[in-house]
From TrEMBL:
The active site is at H241 (proton acceptor). GO terms for biological process: lipid A biosynthetic process. Pfam families: Hexapep (PF00132), LpxD (PF04613). This is UDP-3-O-acylglucosamine N-acyltransferase. It comes from Flavobacterium indicum (strain DSM 17447 / CIP 109464 / GPTSA100-9). Residues 22-89 form the UDP-3-O-[3-hydroxymyristoyl] glucosamine N-acyltransferase non-repeat region domain. GO terms for cellular component: membrane.
Length: 338
């Protein structure tokens, strides 16, 4: 899909300096611009590239005044960075603007769906599923029985949504993620074996949640595993049965949260964090990467380490951790002097 400088300027409410009919069909960094590409200049550190870039069109701030000849068509805007971000969002919307039901695919008995559904090839939709308006389900996805999917949801290729799951509006789930698989529940037996405990709850994901690729969110044993409004989950995250994640909490990759733990609102959890089950994490808590959380945390705490403790104390202690070999050597020398 091609766009002219004039069309782009119309979207961004900008001014064209150069050829209004110049066409672009791809995006590029300014230092890697090639003919047919659109780029932007916002950081003054990259200003030299505006004179050498081969990009056809560049978005710049209105304050930019070239000090030498510029061959690229310019679009002047109030804020080049924000305008380019707006354009990326617009481009992404166009790219994802698909509709229709591709074949082969299966829509089972009792399922209803709204306007502008896109269902990719090799998808399976179970019985009595309710799908809202403008939902995009990409190829090779599975939707189990009695699932509810709200308006404007996007499920990328290879997503698995088990039965009884409820998705709110504007939920995005990336490829390879599994929502609603069984929680990890096994009862030890007298003979040393384990008997599986039936997992008959579900998963509820509220509005405006985004979940990265290859993450897993387990269904509850009873009741619901709940991901509250505005939560953002990275790739490769494990959310166990009956966990609740509070509104607008963000969690980085490779974090695991064990069963029945409650995480508060507006928390920030770094990568590779492990959180034990049956504890409560307060609101506005920050957990640094690779921390191990073995007890409940109060509102506003900032922690690091394994087991985690106050971040300031950890930073001070780390200085001594690094110096342990020399400290031990000094102690040994003191013993010899005695």
């Amino acid at each position: 899909m091609k766009f002219t400088a004039q069309q782009i300027a119309g979207i961004l409410e900008g001014e064209v300096i150069g050829n209004p009919n110049a066409e672009v069909y791809k995006l590029a960094k300014i230092e890697e611009g090639t003919p047919g590409s659109l780029t932007f200049l916002a950081n003054p550190k990259y200003i030299n590239y505006i004179y050498s870039t081969a990009a056809t069109i560049a978005i710049v701030n209105k304050s930019f005044e070239p000090e030498q000849e510029v061959s690229t068509t310019l679009i002047k805007v109030d804020d080049a960075y924000k305008s380019f971000s707006k354009l990326l969002e617009y481009y992404n919307q166009i790219k994802l603007m698909k509709s229709g039901i591709e074949q082969p695919s299966v829509i089972s008995e009792g399922t209803t769906y709204g306007d502008d559904l896109y269902l990719g090839s090799f998808c399976y939709v179970g019985q009595n599923v309710k799908i809202g308006n403008n939902v995009k389900i990409y190829p090779n996805s599975f939707i189990g029985d009695n699932v509810e999917i709200g308006d404007n949801c996007i499920l990328f290729a290879g997503v698995r949504v088990y039965s009884e799951t409820v998705l709110g509006k504007s939920v995005t789930i990336h490829s390879g993620t599994v929502v609603g698989s069984d929680g990890f529940g096994f009862a030890p037996q007298e003979d040393g074996s384990y008997k599986k405990v039936p997992q008959i709850g579900n998963v509820i994901i509220e509005d405006d949640v985004e979940i990265g690729s290859c993450s897993t969110i387990d269904r509850a044993t009873l009741g619901s595993t709940i991901i509250r409004k505005g939560v953002k989950l990275d790739n490769h995250i494990q959310i166990a049965h009956n966990v609740e994640i509070g509104e607008n909490t963000v969690i980085a990759s490779q974090t695991g949260i064990a069963g029945s733990t409650k995480v508060g609102k507006n928390c920030m959890i770094g990568g590779q964090v492990g959180i034990v089950g049956h504890i409560t994490i307060g609101d506005n808590v920050k957990i640094q990467a690779q921390s191990g959380i073995a007890k409940s945390l109060k509102d506003g705490e900032v922690v690091q380490g394994s087991p985690a403790f106050n971040y300031g104390d950890f930073a001070k202690s780390f200085v001594h951790f690094k110096n342990l070999p020399s400290i031990v050597k000094d102690l040994e020398n003191l013993k010899k002097e005695k």
